[in-house]
Structure formats: C-alpha cells, structure tokens
Amino acid sequence: MPGTKHLYDTIRSALFGGHLTQNHVDGIEAIISAAKSGGVTDNRQIAYMLATVYHECGRTMQPVRENGRGAGHPYGQKLKMGGGPGHRVPYTTPDQIYYGRGYVQLTWYENYESMGKLLHIDLLNNPDLALKDDIAAQIMVKGMTKGIFTGVNLDRYFNVERTDWVNARKIINGLDMAEKIAGNAKLFYKGLTRSGA
C-alpha cells in the first residue's frame, strides 16, 4: 500500500473540506490497522470500511453514540430481539440499553453479547467499550468480513470477479445512502492505491 501521505492528500479536500484533524487521522489509522490485523488485504474492502465510518459517524472518523440513544426503537428499551417484532423478550440485567455505538452503530442485546464473545470482551456489561476506537474497529471488521450484521459480507461485493460499490451497503443497512457511500469509498480507494476505481 502506498504511504498514508497519498491517502491523506487525496481525501483532505474531497471529503474533509481541506482540513484533517488528529482525530480523523487516529480513526483512519485504527480502521486500517484493524482491517490488516483481521486479514483484509483488498484495498477496495478497506476503502469501503472507511467510507462506511465516514457516513455512520458524521465525518468524524471516531466511534459515536447513536443520536437519541435508541429513543423510539425497540432496542432503545430493555428488550431483546427474541422472536422478532411482537415477540420481544424483556430483560432486567445487565442494567444497560443497547443502542447504537461505535463505527457501525452496534445495536440489540444479542449483538452486544455475541460480538463480545467473539472479541473476548464483556460488551454486555460494558457496552461503552464499543466506543473505543480499537474495539469499534474490531467490531466493524469482524462484522463486515464475516457477514454478522446482515448476512452478507465484503467478499460478496469485492472479489476477483466483482467490484460492487453500491450494493456493498447491504452489509450494513440495505441500500440506505448507497450511492453516496459508494462515491466516497471510491475516493478512499483512490487514496489507498494511487490508481482509483
């Protein structure tokens, strides 16, 4: 991979209004590091992760709490997913609400529980751990590479036969803002490779 200077020169004006803060850089570095540690070698996949965070975290490149902290959503109450809508299961412990946190807005009791087990950390009792950049990055990498969030993963959209910037959004959230995120992912990819999409 070319040096990060090329990446930052490419995205500074196009995505960050001409100014990158230390928080932007720290977040980008945490994501790239977690991706590489997670075995991701395809720059298209890394670029898509960066574009996802850029969108989900309001351009901050830092893990964030969901606006409203789950208000108006069933996961914003002490309910498990259970059997789906109409069959939610209440819980009393831990005394936590599992609203969206992190780079990809992890939600629901069961998702915090399973991701915590996968990463060998107690996310169920300490959901704010998902706001630490290294843990948020690991959650994102595991979820996007293994298809944990929606059942589809990065390999489905970026492989030797396919580069699908738009439909890759299905890894996180249907096709919500898919075109915009695709365009941003191409800019990150250009910065990661010097060649672009």
UniProtKB/TrEMBL annotation:
<feature type="domain" description="Glycoside hydrolase family 19 catalytic">
    <location>
        <begin position="40"/>
        <end position="136"/>
    </location>
</feature>
<dbReference type="Pfam" id="PF00182">
    <property type="entry name" value="Glyco_hydro_19"/>
</dbReference>
<protein>
    <submittedName>
        <fullName>Putative chitinase</fullName>
    </submittedName>
</protein>
<dbReference type="GO" id="GO:0004568">
    <property type="term" value="F:chitinase activity"/>
</dbReference>
<dbReference type="GO" id="GO:0016998">
    <property type="term" value="P:cell wall macromolecule catabolic process"/>
</dbReference>
<dbReference type="InterPro" id="IPR000726">
    <property type="entry name" value="Glyco_hydro_19_cat"/>
</dbReference>
<dbReference type="InterPro" id="IPR023346">
    <property type="entry name" value="Lysozyme-like_dom_sf"/>
</dbReference>
<dbReference type="GO" id="GO:0006032">
    <property type="term" value="P:chitin catabolic process"/>
</dbReference>
